[in-house]
Structures are given as C-alpha cells and as structure tokens.
C-alpha cells in the first residue's frame, strides 16, 4: 500500500506541472520514463515505512559516496588484510561526538565528512598504525534522522527518516494523509517546490524539486541530515509562472525561478515534438504589470540560454505542412482487419481494402459503412437541446432535434456495392484520420423488435415485406402501436415509416413501438390539468366579454 501511495503521489506532482496534454494522443513518453525512474529510486530508497522505529537504519539502498555526509550513528566495517590466511574485521559506529575507534588504532574524526573522503581518511590514518597491511573501509549501516518540515505543507512538523533519504522524500511524507484532489490543490496553487530552503547548522541550502523531477539533477534534491529544517514557501501561482504551448510533448504552466532559461522551459514541457519548428519559437513578454508586451522570436539551439522572466508565454510553432500521425481502422469481412496508417485526406478506401488483403467471399457490401467522428458543433447543439424542455424549444429546434436524433451523423455516404462490384470510382471516398470502416459478413437475418410476440432474428427473404416479418415473429402484441412501426436501415441508421412497398434489406431492424402504460394517478393528474386549463380559458373569455 505504501508503494502504491507514493507512486500515485509522485505521478500527481509531475502531472500538475504539465497541465494538459493536447498535442499527442497518449501519455508523454518522456514524462512516463522519468516518473518510472523516480518511483523506482524513491520508493526503494525511502525508509518512511520505518519512521516510527528508532536506532540505525539498514543500508538496503545505495548512497552516493560523493554526496553522502557521514554523521553519528553510521556504522563502518573495517577489514585489515594481514599477510597469511588470517585477517581482522571490525564493526565500528560513529560516536555522538563524531569519532570511530578500532582496537589498537587511533581515534578518527569523520563527522560531517563526505563518505568518499571519510573512507580515504580512515584508510590513510590506519595505514600508519598498521604498516604493510591492506586496509578496506565500507559503510555498513546508516543512521536515522529527525527532520522538521514546515511552511506551506498540510501537516507541518517533525518526522523520522533515514540518512539515506532526500528532501523529496521528506516533503512527500507531509502529503500522505491527503486525498488526491487536496494534493493537487497544494502542489498546483499553494506550495512552492522550486524554492525550498534547508536550514542546517546555521547554514542555508536550496532545493528545486521540479528541476529534480524533470531532469534528475540530484544537486537539487540533497540528502537530509539530523535536525534539518526544511521550509517549503508559499507559491505565487498567478504571476510567478511560465507557460509553454504548441508543438511540445506536454503543454505546461510551471513556477518561475530566477535563472530559468529557454531550454529549461522546453525540458519541463517534455521537449520538442518532431513536428516542432525549432527555428520559430515565439516568446511573449509583459511589462510593468500592465497589458504592454512584446514578442520575441527565438531559435533552438542558438537561443537555448535565453533568460526568462516571470509571466513569459512561450509558443512553439509546428512545421508548415508537417504530416500528422493518421490511421484508420478496418474491421469485418477483409483478410487482415486492423489499424492502418494513412495520409490524411489522400488515402482512399480501395487502397486500404487492398492493403488489408481484400474482401472475403461472404462480405455483405450493402451494409458496409464508414464511420467518422461527429463534429463538435453537432454534439454541442444536441447536448444543449437535450437539456431543454420540449415546450421551451422553437419549432425549428424541435425539427432539428428530431432529425439529428434519428440520423447517424457518423456515417459517411458510400455505396460499397457500386465501388467493389461495378468499379464506380466516384464512390472511392478519401479517408481521414480516425475513420472506421466496417464491412459486415452476411448473416441472412432481419431483426424484429418491440411490440411483437416473438421478437428476435428472422431469416432474410427478399420477397417479404415488413408485415410478413412481423407475422413470422408472432404478430403484433396487445401493446403494439401498429401505425408507428419503423424500418431502420443498418447501413445508414435512417428510420423509415413502415410501408409494404419499402423493401427490407438483410440486417435491417423492424421496430414496433409499444403503448406506454398510464397509471390511474397519471390519468387523473392529466385530467385535472386539462380541466384547470379549460377553466382558465373560459374565465378569460368571460372577462373579455364584460
């Protein structure tokens, strides 16, 4: 559960600095790879699960000997390789005053010394006391530390970590009892993760966890030490930010920090897409907290070091005429159904049928369709009308709603029979990315549903009309609204009022609506409503005549 929590938490932190991915249809590979490495590094090396324990921490994860600072409680193993078969091994813990001691050797002060230097010092000092002996020194166990995390965190206070943990672990620990939405609010609007202060022995260090998360720069995420005070300042999310949009892997809005360069902003947005025009990057800069601004045109790599300012807006233009990644799906009665890459608005149906191995023998071309995503404007209009009461609609809106509800605006008109059997190239439709082609196999069935006694599939016969199929399905039942029977064309989604002269095609649906059951309460209620309306009208007429 702990590993799952930290994985989710790290993901939320990173995603909030990359507000919305719109240029690519899937998660950003750069960000995903970075997240995986951070989850692996931080979950495995963290000792948060042992924060309630006391004593030394096991060295179950590597520490960087060029960064790790030795302190009281660390345990070293020292090996004296004496000539011959014998050798001596000593385990010694750094004392509270910072020394290590082995029998027959001098006291060696190693507190606050970088691990690599401490090992070298131990070997050099002991070599003088034990000449002609090969000496080895290794860190065997690390110590626990008490750290105060204060400032704009939800649960400021003291926590216990291990000396192998970093500032990142300490800060994350303060969010562990929050829900994801609350974490998002803190990370996105309240906490400044780029300007963290570490107060240590009357000295101050800085940590930039955003830079660490996006670049892996460990200098911005140092090890914690006992009695550290980690201060997380509040963030100015309105004015102290940089936005990056356009042909980048992850459009983002991140907190500005003095010293940020153009290249930093592009790294924080996941880098340029292959479609990006690196020679045309627009930077919009505002002045004097007013609407005054100027536009600068920058290039990569020549302007990589260009210094940014708070509230800069960066836009990366796409290369003119760059081909997008377009693909379609073909399913049904072809040799090799699946996804195929196309050139948008250039590849035709016949090309895709050929690439998919051709149409198989039992294909039913009459019902083959091309589906295309609906236009947003149509969807928005329909959603708006669905929320309205019928009495509030105009006559035009009622007509539009009825028409749009019945038609399938996803279907692109194409007569596959003419195209395939008669080689009518006027039906060779040009495809768009996202199109779906469905060529059904012949089923020799017609569906009869609704107000019949035996609804279901009936074997297709080209000589039968809709009444014949209903008769085979047991006939109209007592609830059937016979006069409202509909024929639904599976090839187009069009609803037709049933008529004996309308031919039924294989795969069509014959739908018989049923009468709605009206309760006594509803009948009385409707009757009272009508009576009240009539009384009102009569009263108004009476008043008008006086």
Shape call? elongated
Mean of pLDDT: 81
**SS summary, helix count:** 13
Taken together, the total number of domains comes to 5
Main β sheet profile: 5 strands, mixed
- Give the neighbour order of strands across the main sheet: 8-7-11-9-10
| Percentage beta strand | 15-25%
Summarize, please.
The chain contains 13 helices and 26 strands. The chain is an alpha+beta fold.
Give your account of this protein's structure:
Helix 1 runs parallel beside helix 5. This protein is 27% helix and 24% strand. It starts with a helix and ends with a helix. A hairpin with a 6-residue loop joins strand 2 and strand 3. It has 5 domains: 141 residues, no CATH class; 85 residues, wza like fold; 78 residues, Outer membrane lipoprotein wza fold like (Roll), CATH 3.10.560.10; 114 residues, Outer membrane lipoprotein wza domain like (Outer membrane lipoprotein wza fold like), CATH 3.10.560; 68 residues, Outer membrane lipoprotein wza fold like (Roll). It is α+β, with helices and mostly antiparallel strands.
Question: What topology emerges from the helices and strands here?
Answer:
Blueprint: H1 2-15, H2 29-45, E1 57-58, E2 75-81, E3 88-93, E4 99-100, E5 108-109, H3 115-129, E6 134-142, E7 144-151, E8 157-162, H4 167-173, H5 180-190, E9 196-200, E10 203-207, H6 209-215, E11 229-232, E12 241-246, E13 252-255, H7 262-268, E14 276-286, E15 293-298, E16 313-318, E17 326-332, E18 338-342, H8 349-355, E19 369-371, H9 376-386, H10 395-406, E20 411-412, H11 416-421, E21 436-439, E22 445-450, E23 456-459, H12 466-472, E24 486-488, E25 495-497, E26 509-512, H13 520-545
Parallel strand pairs: 7-11, 12-16, 17-21, 22-26
Antiparallel strand pairs: 1-6, 2-3, 2-6, 4-5, 7-8, 9-10, 9-11, 12-13, 14-15, 14-16, 17-18, 19-20, 19-21, 22-23, 24-25, 24-26
């Amino acid at each position: 559960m702990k590993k799952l929590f930290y994985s989710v938490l790290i993901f939320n932190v990173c995603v909030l600095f990359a507000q919305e991915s719109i240029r690519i249809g899937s998660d950003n590979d750069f960000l995903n790879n970075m997240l995986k490495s951070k989850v692996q590094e931080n979950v495995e090396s963290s000792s948060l699960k042992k924060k309630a324990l006391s004593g030394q921490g096991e060295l179950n994860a590597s520490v960087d000997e060029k960064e790790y600072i030795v302190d009281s409680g660390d345990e070293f193993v020292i090996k004296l390789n004496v000539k011959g078969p014998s050798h001596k091994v000593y385990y010694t813990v750094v004392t509270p005053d910072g020394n290590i001691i082995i029998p027959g050797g001098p006291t060696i002060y190693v507190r606050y010394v970088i691990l690599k230097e401490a090992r070298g010092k131990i070997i050099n000092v002991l070599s003088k006391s034990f000449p002609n002996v090969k000496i080895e020194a290794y860190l065997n166990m690390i110590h626990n530390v008490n750290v105060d995390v204060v400032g704009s965190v939800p649960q400021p206070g003291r926590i216990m970590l291990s000396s192998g943990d970093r500032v990142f672990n300490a800060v994350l620990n303060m969010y562990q009892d929050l829900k994801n939405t609350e974490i998002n609010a803190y990370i996105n609007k309240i906490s400044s993760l780029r300007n963290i202060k570490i107060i240590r022995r009357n000295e101050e260090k800085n940590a930039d966890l955003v830079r660490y998360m996006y670049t892996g720069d460990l200098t911005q995420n140092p090890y914690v030490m006992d009695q550290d005070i980690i201060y997380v300042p509040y963030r100015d999310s309105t004015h102290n930010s940089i936005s990056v949009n356009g042909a980048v892997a992850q459009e983002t809005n991140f907190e500005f920090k003095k010293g940020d360069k153009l290249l930093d902003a592009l790294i924080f947005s996941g880098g340029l897409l292959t479609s990006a025009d690196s020679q045309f990057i627009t930077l919009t800069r505002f002045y004097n907290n007013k609407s005054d601004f100027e536009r600068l045109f920058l290039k990569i790599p020549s302007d990589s070091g260009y210094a940014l300012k708070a509230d800069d807006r960066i836009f990366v233009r796409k290369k003119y005429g760059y081909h997008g990644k377009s693909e379609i799906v073909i399913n049904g009665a072809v040799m090799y159904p699946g996804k195929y890459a196309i050139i948008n608005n250039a590849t035709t149906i016949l090309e895709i049928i050929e690439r998919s191995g051709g149409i198989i023998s039992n294909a039913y071309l009459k019902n083959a369709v091309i589906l295309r995503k609906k236009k947003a404007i149509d969807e928005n209009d329909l959603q708006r009308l669905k929320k309205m009461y019928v009495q509030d609609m105009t006559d035009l809106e009622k007509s539009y709603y009825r028409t749009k509800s019945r038609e399938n605006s996803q279907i692109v008109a194409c007569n596959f029979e003419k195209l395939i059997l008669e080689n009518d190239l006027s039906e060779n439709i040009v495809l768009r990315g996202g199109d779906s082609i469905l060529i059904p196999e012949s089923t020799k069935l017609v569906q009869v549903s609704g107000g019949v006694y035996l609804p279901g599939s009936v074997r297709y016969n080209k000589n039968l009309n809709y009444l014949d199929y209903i008769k085979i399905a047991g006939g109209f039942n007592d609830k059937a609204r016979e006069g409202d029977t509909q024929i639904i064309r599976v090839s187009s989604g069009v609803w037709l009022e049933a008529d004996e002269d309308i031919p039924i095609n294989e795969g069509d649906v014959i739908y018989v609506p049923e009468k709605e059951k009206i309760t006594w309460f509803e009948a009385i209620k409707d009757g009272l409503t009508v009576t009240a309306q009539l009384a009102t009208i009569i009263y108004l007429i009476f008043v008008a005549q006086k």
